[in-house]
Specification:
This protein has four helices and eight strands. By secondary structure, it is of the alpha/beta class.
Length: 204
Amino acid sequence: MFLCMMIIIANATILEEIEMNVQNLKLDQIHHVAYRCKDAKETVEFYTKMLNMEFVLAIAEDKVPSTHEPDPYMHLFLDAGNGNVLAFFELPTKPEMGRDPNTPIWVQHIAFKVKDRATLLGFKEHLEAQGVDVLGVTDHSIFHSIYFFDPSGHRVELACPDPKEAEMLERLDAVKWDMLEEWSRTKKAPQHADWLHAKELGKE
């Protein structure tokens, strides 16, 4: 009996130490985000020309390092600013890439921050001059966005902060948990922050 109690106490102590250690674990930042692309060269040319990204490096193997399975690939890395890296894989031996038919095309996207509205409009003008179809500017209140697609069909967003971003973020922060709980129960859009898209959706 005594031995059992000692084992229980020891296990409880170990679990408590593990929990304390877990609380000290923090992520530094995103190392990179990777997507598939249809053509490696076309992808690099698009992002360097359209968004002025720097082509950082390329990695190519005939076997996948993590799984060791034979699968030739080209892995591209592009500088997305501020230590963020956008990566792509071209997989020539795999079936043609597709997308989830049950997910609307506007849902999955890559969003990049730009400094201000003047920069956002500058990118819009540049992209359209290069023949890229651009949607927006869309008013999200806390930020303003334009949208377009890269050559592989990935939706890309450029967003600039609103001058009153900090004030609006405080309002959103105050209701985020209430909104999440209500959504979890009802699966209907909570109205705590319906002011956010009131202008864009004509609800004012």
